[in-house]
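pinging the channel bc i need a second pair of eyes. not urgent but kinda urgent?? the chain im working w is below, pasted from the shared doc
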Amino acid sequence: MLMPVVDSAHRVWFNQDQDETWFQSISHIMRMITLFAFLLPAAALVREKEHGTVEQLLVSPITPLQIMLSKVLAMTLVILAATALAMVTVLKPVFGVPIKGSVALFFLMTALYSFTTAGLGLFAATVARNQAQVGMMALLVISPMLLLSGIATPFEAMPSWVQTLMALSPLRYFVDVTYGILLKGVGLELLWDSMLAMALLGGTMFGLGMWRFRRQFR
């Protein structure tokens, strides 16, 4: 008697050759964006505190919001320029990573993620007293983000409590956005929820940082 046979045919999407260098090169760019977005605005604000120039800025017509935005916008432009250089000179020509989605959308999301992560950095800068303390706080904040947000291991394979905790990590959403745009070619119709989550986290952290910034000089 013949029995039915199930023929399992596995199909790999978006990386048919399973080239590990595609994921490693993209993940390395995300690591560098995360580090710079946190450290550069935080170090710039703490340096003002170390040199005693923050008080001079506060008595000027510039508002605290303008002071913090100037730090974030300047560092965001630096990060975007470095990301563009890495994509043009390394990512595509050296590793052959395809860029299937909208480059403009990717840089828009990168700018949003830089703003969100900069909010964490500015909040840390209001707590720290010098750049050494900012570096130590970066280890406490950035290390869990890099290890548990889905860069090192698939996010779906982590315990449920880790997935719940990492809902507060902007990197968890930026991973989906980056892989979705660069490798899958998807647009805002599938990434709107990640964009909204990053915007909410960024606004919250930036607001907390500005509140702390005003409070410590009263």
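so The helical segments are 20-51, 54-58, 64-91, 103-127, 131-148, 160-165, 170-184, 188-215. and Residues 103 and 181 are 8 Å apart (CA to CA). — does that match what u expected or am i reading it wrong
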